[in-house]
What we know:
The chain contains two helices and four strands. By secondary structure, it is α+β, with helices and mostly antiparallel strands. The chain has one domain (2-24, 34-77). A hairpin with a 5-residue loop joins β2 and β3. This is GNAT family N-acetyltransferase.
Amino acid sequence: MSVSKASISDLSALLNLVNTTYRGETSTKGWTSEILLLAGDIRIDEEILTDYLINPAVSVLKYTNSENQLIGCVYLEQKEENLLLRYARS
């Protein structure tokens, strides 16, 4: 298992992970589903995620298993010099 900073090469896997975790049929099996709260099929799109991944104030950390499959991620954004905001996403 490994935690590392995500890059543009992880874009497709991250989009799939976040969107299936929070939206769609498979999301209803877990506690993270937003299907009854918000409309739409996706939680994040390619343009927004790309902006996150190229923004120097943002770090998206990915968590992979022993087969190098993406199983979790977290969004960190530096707002002030010594302050990070974190938004857990899995």
